[in-house]
């Protein structure tokens, strides 16, 4: 188990995806996952407090809209947790940080911004251009 100093940040000067970098991204992903689960628990607690008790139709509609929005947000968080779990599995199998399409390193800046990234910036741009051309309108 690698112990990281609180101010450690991966650097281009290091070997790509060395033990320290892997430990850094694993820790980052685990914290992100924990925060999402905590928020989900808070949402569940607030939604289970009871039904809508607003007498006014406008207030009732506002509460229902807020709940629907919160449920959509939680669904996105649920999907993000799945992607985080997949990234953690890639750390364990040694494929984390490498583009699934090209096998090239994804890049530390991209991983810092989006630790669940599976494509390099170039591959992601190609994917998005292809999607834009062939999407159903």
Would you kindly provide a written description of the structure presented here, covering whatever features stand out?
The chain is mostly helical and 137 residues long. It is 63% helix and 0% strand. The protein has 4 helices and no strands. The protein has helices at residues 19-47, 57-93, 108-113, 121-134. Helix 1 runs antiparallel to helix 2 (57-93). The longest helix has 37 residues, at 57-93. The radius of gyration is 20 Å and the shape is flat. It starts with 18 loop residues before the first helix and ends with a helix. The model has no long low-confidence stretch (mean pLDDT 88).
Keywords:
zinc-finger; Znf_DskA_TraR_CS; Znf_DskA_TraR; 4 helices; mainly alpha; metal-binding; cytoplasm
What's the quick description here?
Helices cover 63% and strands 0% of the residues. The chain is mainly α and 137 residues long.
Largest sheet: none
In whole angstroms, the N-to-C terminal distance is: 50 Å
Cα gyration radius (Å): 20 Å
Q: Tell me the β content.
A: under 5%
* Class derived from helix and strand content: mainly alpha
User: What is the strand tally?
Assistant: 0
Helix content: 55-70%
Mean pLDDT: 88
Shape: flat
What string gives the helices and strands in order?
HHHH
Zinc finger (dksA C4-type): 99-123
Domain DnaK suppressor protein DksA N-terminal: 21-91
Function: Transcription factor that acts by binding directly to the RNA polymerase (RNAP). Required for negative regulation of rRNA expression and positive regulation of several amino acid biosynthesis promoters.
Protein name: RNA polymerase-binding transcription factor DksA
């Amino acid at each position: 188990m690698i112990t990281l100093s609180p101010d450690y940040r991966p650097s281009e000067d290091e070997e790509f995806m060395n033990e320290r970098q892997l430990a850094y991204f694993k820790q980052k992903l685990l914290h992100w996952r924990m925060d999402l689960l905590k928020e989900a628990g808070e949402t569940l607690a607030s939604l289970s407090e009871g039904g809508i008790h607003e007498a006014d139709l406008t207030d009732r509609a506002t509460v229902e809209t807020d709940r629907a929005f919160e449920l959509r947000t939680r669904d996105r968080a649920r999907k993000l947790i799945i992607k985080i779990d997949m990234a953690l599995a890639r750390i364990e199998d040694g494929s984390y940080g490498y583009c699934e399409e090209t096998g090239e390193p994804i890049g530390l800046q991209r991983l810092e911004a989006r630790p669940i990234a599976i494509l390099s910036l170039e591959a992601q741009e190609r994917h998005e251009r292809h999607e834009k051309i062939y999407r159903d309108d």
